[in-house]
Amino acid sequence: MIDSLFGVYGASGFGREVMPLAANYLNKQGINQENLYFIDDSVEEKEINGYKVIKYSEFKEKKANKKFISLAIANNKIRNELANALQEDGIISWSLHHDNVVKLAEVSIKEGYVLCPFVCLTSNIKIGKHFHANIYSYVGHDCTIGDFVTFAPGVKCNGNIIIEDNVYIGTGAIIKQGKPNRPLIIGKGAVVGMGAVVTKNVPEGDTVIGNPAKTLSRKSLRG
Question: Which of 28, 64, 67, 71 fits a 20 to 30 Å CA distance from 204?
Fold first, then answer.
């Protein structure tokens, strides 16, 4: 029986950016690249960038002592559902990062993260599970980030900010620094649009755009 099998869930878009991180990990551990798969239930290709594409059911059926999957799905709702499936099926949520990611001091981050090239996490930061930080994103000091938060490329999250669960922050968004006794808060399930400049709290469920960011739409997450 194979000792370990590895998968990147999502064979289009972001998954193709995550696969090199996965391949690099296996290479450094001396693990055969044939133990690494793309997992996708909708893509028709059988092979992408030299890696076999299989369905999740096929991956589950393969025999191995341990199985690892990185969820390369930007949609945090779908990522949440898949994470629950992994837990039920006894598959380990695989955390991946590029070699040039910078983590300075007192950075705590839970399982299932993907940290792409040139991401910087400075100091005194707490991050929940299944966090995605795409290329050139930044998290400043004394920030708290919840579960299933997604940073698109180039997000600038300055110090003293709280980002609650299931928040999506678009490419190039900038979040103004909060204060030690009054952090800026982005509420659960909020969406920050591409290029937005957030200067004040964002209520849960709101979508904000522009500079300064203003509410485009509002979605109640209660009840």
Answer: 71
CA dist., res. 185 & res. 203, Å (int): 8
**Active centre residues (catalytic):** 141
Same domain, 202 and 103: yes
Instruction: Determine the Cα–Cα distance for residues 63 and 113; give it in Å rounded to an integer.
Output: 25
- One domain, residues 164 and 66: no
- Total number of domains constituting the chain: 2
Angle at the Cα of 177 (from 78 to 137), degrees rounded to 5?
A: 45
Range of the domain at 27: 2-94
Both 48 and 103 in one domain: the answer is no
Query: For the range 152-157, what are the long-range contacts, defined as Cβ-Cβ under 8 Å and sequence gap of 24 or more?
Result: 152/74, 152/194, 153/116
Q: Which residue is listed with tokens 């299931």?
A: 166
Helix/strand/coil for 174: strand
What pairs with residue 185 in β-bridges? Answer: 162
> pLDDT digit string (tens) for 71-89?
999 999 999 999 999 999 9
